[in-house]
């Protein structure tokens, strides 16, 4: 296996044009080996402190996705169970990682920021109260399952959260490009659900016949928690 210095050297000689248009293949082994050594910064000033006097266009890291709302309505003569657990399923397939040059001030060497952009689609299940309701269960072919009486059933609402977050900075285009690919690999792997996690609160109105879900997301802080990410990767 290539050592860290070899991988970093290869990345740092990649031209701006190639890095902007081509993906650089990485393996999970390289993620484990290289990610902690990148030293991604949380601020522009941390990324390349020499000569940096202020933030003019780089922006700042933001690890939370603004919550969105979706509304579920109970059928007539049903009400929601306000004390039951709620469930959420979400997809990260609509996300991508980009690298962009930016400047911390008018004289500083360009800094490279790493952004995650796109959307997260989700669906939320809110259980209905089960008292005095008849239930039944059927197979995928429409055959009723004997002696099966589901005790939990729900209404759902669906939505999509817009993602446009800066998650780190680097002084080198090579380092930023490698980080982009490593983070993209995380999102495509079994670690994606721990890398981006949901927040969910549900409120009820209309005598518990209307459920309004507020759904947000948190992105793991790659610029300060790379060691933790690597530890999780090692378990896979």
UniProtKB/TrEMBL annotation:
Protein name from the UniProt record: DUF4489 domain-containing protein
Organism: Clostridium gelidum
């Amino acid at each position: 296996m290539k050592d860290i210095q070899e991988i970093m050297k290869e990345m740092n000689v990649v031209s701006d044009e190639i890095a902007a248009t081509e993906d650089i293949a990485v393996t999970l082994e390289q993620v484990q080996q290289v990610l902690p050594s990148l030293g991604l910064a949380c601020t522009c000033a941390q990324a390349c402190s020499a000569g940096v006097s202020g933030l003019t266009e780089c922006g700042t890291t933001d690890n939370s996705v603004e919550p969105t709302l979706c509304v579920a309505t109970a059928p007539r003569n049903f009400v929601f169970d306000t004390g039951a657990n709620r469930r959420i399923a979400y997809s990260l397939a609509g996300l991508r990682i980009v690298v962009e040059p930016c400047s911390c001030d008018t004289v500083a060497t360009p800094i490279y920021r790493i952004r995650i952009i796109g959307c997260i689609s989700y669906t939320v299940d809110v259980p209905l109260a089960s008292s005095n309701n008849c239930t039944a269960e059927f197979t995928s072919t429409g055959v009723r399952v004997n002696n099966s009486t589901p005790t939990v059933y729900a209404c759902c609402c669906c939505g999509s959260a817009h993602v446009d977050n800066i998650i780190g900075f680097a002084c080198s285009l090579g380092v930023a490009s490698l980080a982009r690919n490593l983070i993209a690999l995380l999102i495509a792997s079994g670690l994606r659900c721990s890398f981006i996690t949901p927040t969910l609160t549900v409120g009820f109105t209309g005598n518990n016949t209307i459920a309004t879900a507020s759904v947000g997301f948190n992105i793991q802080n790659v610029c300060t928690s790379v060691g933790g990410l690597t530890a999780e990767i090692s378990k896979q």
